[in-house]
Amino acid sequence: MKRILFLFIMGLSLMRISAQQPDASELMSKSRELTLAGSMVANVHLSITEKSGTSRARTISMTTKTFLNGQEKRFIRFLEPADVKGTSMLIIDNKDINDEMWIYLPALKKDQAYCQFLKKEELL
């Protein structure tokens, strides 16, 4: 009898917890709102360590601005080392449509849109 009562109480507790869980789209929306920065300027030093143990260093300048319509724009420029200096990215994080990414490669002296499926490829 005690076991049945215990299982009944646990079942009610689980139903109450599951009833309070937000749906996935609501959770993603709240998460996005919390990460919006307003505006920010930063210089960042990155140290990238490969599986083989070799490391590379990068210094970037990053500027972020969030707009009232929920759009966020990030401008990133590589400052060091010399082989990537001047490489720049403009990332437009749209709230309701696909994000945009533009990249400028100084060696080629041109900018280009960066496709979604290429995001997994190594750039720098």
Shape from CA axes?
extended
- Strand sequence of the main sheet, in spatial order? 1-2-3-4-5-6
Average pLDDT rating: 76
User: What distance lies between the first and last C-alpha atoms, to the nearest angstrom?
Assistant: 66 Å
Provide structural commentary.
- A hairpin with a 7-residue loop joins strand 3 (72-80) and strand 4.
- The longest helix is centred in the first third of the chain and has 18 residues, at 2-19.
- This protein is 24% helix and 39% strand.
- By secondary structure, it is α+β, with helices and mostly antiparallel strands.
- Strands 1-2-3-4-5-6 form a six-stranded antiparallel sheet, with no helix packed on it.
- The model has no long low-confidence stretch (mean pLDDT 76).
Topology:
Blueprint: H1 2-19, H2 24-35, E1 39-49, E2 55-66, E3 72-80, E4 88-93, E5 100-105, E6 110-113
Antiparallel strand pairs: 1-2, 2-3, 3-4, 4-5, 5-6
Notable traits:
124 residues, alpha+beta, 6-stranded antiparallel beta sheet, 2 helices, 24% helix
In a few lines, what is going on in this structure?
The chain has 124 residues and is of the alpha+beta class. The protein has helices at 2-19, 24-35, and strands at 39-49, 55-66, 72-80, 88-93, 100-105, 110-113.
